[in-house]
Fold this sequence. Notes:
The chain is mainly alpha-helical and 255 residues long. Helix content is 58%, strand content 0%. It has helices at residues 12-33, 57-71, 104-107, 112-127, 136-155, 157-167, 169-177, 181-188, 191-208, 227-251. The longest helix is centred in the last third of the chain and has 25 residues, at 227-251. The radius of gyration is 20 Å and the shape is globular. It starts with 11 loop residues before the first helix and ends with a helix. The structure holds prephenic acid.
Amino acid sequence: MAEGISGSEFTLDSIRKALIRQEDVIVFSLIERARFPMNSALYNPRLDLVPGFSGPLVDFIVKETEAVQAKAGRYVNPEENPFFPDNLPPSMIPNYNYSQVLHPGGASININKAIWDMYLNQLLPLFVDAGDDGNYASTAASDLICLQALSRRIHYGKFVAEIKFRDAPNDYEPPIRAKDTDALMKLLTDERVEKMVKKRVEKKADVFGQDVNVSNNADSKRYKVDPSVVARLYDEWVIPLTKLVEVEYLIRRLD
Length: 255
Ligand SMILES: O=C(O)C(=O)C[C@]1(C(=O)O)C=C[C@@H](O)C=C1
């Protein structure tokens, strides 16, 4: 399990450090995806490119990859949530003893449908060039890396919510009992932190996405992924969806 969640290390500070580390993975995964053009045939539900499989090629690749990873135990880890949870095969390997810090009521929250929709329909067109180079399998593999990184980050909201609840149960219990989602949203929001997160990811996209040359003069700033798109990704989708997961989790926290 990643840093920040196991045993004595489970604090708001350690969880935030894990979120910061995940920013690197998200920015790099977007940079990788930007190597390929849109390759829209991959997402076309009418093309039926795989005999015997009905649906877009990307669904086929993600479903099959998730099935292999499920057999190898990926979804036994409470940080991981599949995009196609129906009919996933069970893990075939001996269970690793993950620390179970989540309350069972909220542990199974899965908002991957919303993440999938956001990624394919809204985010991709913002940072990928038009065109088709035929590299569908490689493109789908890098889509899956982006999707898994975004999903892990957003579902970390469960761990954030759990630690916030444990740190201040007296503040959280009344709105949970009243099912007051607006009050919960207000309580868990820290605008100062959100501002910092958005600034930092924009800077990471700036630094990680430049062409580096030996003379160290980045004469023309040609970004692999526009830093403002990464800031927008966090502002419009990553942070709001993380907060949605936090509220959903808290609502179930006393079940
Ligand atoms: O760090 C926190 O306290 C979180 O809840 C995470 C997060 C985020 O998604 O980055 C979400 C809500 C807060 O307003 C601040 C940041």
